[in-house]
Amino acid sequence: MGMVRSAAGREDARRVQPRARRNGLVVQKLPEETLVYDLERHRAHCLNRAATLVWESCDGRRSVADLAKALQEQTGLPAEDVVVWMALERLAKAHLLEERMRPPGGTGRYTRREVLRRLGLTAGLGILLPAVQSIVAPEVVQAASGVTAAACFSNPNANAGKCCIDSNPRRICRKVFRWGFCIGAAC
To answer: What crossing angle do the helices spanning 81-93 and 49-57 adopt, rounded to 10°?
Structure first.
């Protein structure tokens, strides 16, 4: 997602009205971040303050320009569309938007370094930029077993029949000759 260059392109980009995904999510707000668990994809996401503000403001009625203004009021970041597009890109990648948003005429993507450079911000202010950290959350049966591929390989007698949590997830630790491998039926 590159920068929108023409005045007409910038105007089209400002009319985009993103909508946050709300269904199939468990949301826990904390003082400086928001934790979102995606029940469909079994992924957990941690949104920093700026990403949370953008995500919560994506109501399908506000434009990118409106989101940039709100972000500036709440965080002190410059009211620039590029900051909002960076947040939208990260939220879309985490499947936290109803549909993926792309700036008109844009290609590529917004990196933190590029946004800092374009806005003339110092690296210290980079902590204010929107950030979404995601992890795959193990299913309950996997989390309970705690068997890694290494543990399965090295001690199949003790771990046989338990679910693997890293290599070949949702497989069972099975003894093959004298070693263990994460194979077989799904957990």
So the answer is: 90
Q: Output 111-115 pairs: Cβ under 8 A, ≥24 positions apart.
A: 112/86, 115/82, 115/83, 115/86
Q: Does 97 score more than 90 pLDDT?
A: yes
pTM: 0.65
Q: Which of 32, 17, 15 is nearest to 74 (CA)?
A: 32
- How buried is residue 52: exposed, middle or buried, by Cβ count under 10 Å (0-12/13-18/19+)? buried
Side chain identity, residue 89:
E
Residue 85: CB atoms within 10 A of its CB come to: 28
Closest alpha carbon to 44 in 137, 166, 143, 139: 137
* Neighbour-count burial of 28, counting CB atoms closer than 10 A to its CB (0-12 exposed, 13-18 middle, 19+ buried): exposed
Q: What is the pLDDT of residues 20-66, one digit of tens each?
A: 999 999 999 988 899 998 888 888 899 999 999 999 999 999 999 99
Q: DSSP of 51-67, one letter per residue?
A: HHHHHHH-BSSS-HHHH
Residue 48 in contact with residue 61, Cβ under 8 Å?
A: no
